[in-house]
Amino acid sequence: MKKEVYINSIGSVSVQKTFDDSAFLEDIVTYNDNAIKVVDPNYKEFIPPAAARRMAKGIKMSAVSSQNAMKEAGLENVDAIIVGTGLGCLGDSEKFVRDILDNDEQYLTPTRFIQSSHNTVAGSIALDMGCKGYNFTYVHSNLSFESSLWDAKLQLATNEAENILVGAVDELVNHHVETHKFIDHIKKEAVPMEDVLNSGTKGIVFGEGSHFFVLSNKKQGSTYSRLIDMGIYNTLPEEKISETITSFLENNKISISDLDGVILGNNGDVEFDSIYKNLGTSLFEENPQLVYKHLSGEYDTASGFAFWLANKIFKTGKVPEILRWNNLPINNPKRLLIYNQYRGKNHSLVLLEKC
Question: What is the DSSP string of 44-98?
Answer without folding.
Answer: GGTS-HHHHTTS-HHHHHHHHHHHHHHHHHT-S--SEEEEE-SS-SHHHHHHHHH
